[in-house]
Design a protein that fits this description.
Elements lengths: L3 H21 L3 H26 L3 H31 L13
């Protein structure tokens, strides 16, 4: 049986890996995946606290976070496709200007 402590450790680990990935990675797709890791870490902590406190508020916040993640993925992938069509690369170093 996993306790809330184990869930919070896993949540912190997911969030840390995502944060390091966002800082280190240069590829747009990899950065999006790392942001998803960070959001899933937050979702795991919401669910853990919801289970521990026996309230559904945390689970409701998880749905909001999932909606934000879906919107982020849709907009981010559209930006990535536009960047690739115009620059032939997905590196964030080449996306330093908004108009070219």
């Amino acid at each position: 049986m996993m306790s809330i402590f184990h869930c919070l450790i896993l949540s912190a680990l997911l969030f840390t890996v995502g944060t390091i990935g966002v800082i280190v990675k240069k590829n747009v797709i990899a950065i999006f995946l790392c942001i998803e890791l960070m959001l899933n870490g937050v979702n795991l902590s919401f669910v853990a606290f919801s289970k521990y406190l026996e309230q559904v508020n945390g689970q409701i916040f998880v749905f909001f976070v999932m909606v934000v993640a879906a919107a982020e993925a849709a907009v981010g992938l559209a930006i990535a496709i536009t960047l690739y069509r115009n620059r032939k690369t997905l590196s964030v170093d080449d996306a330093d200007i908004m108009k070219w």
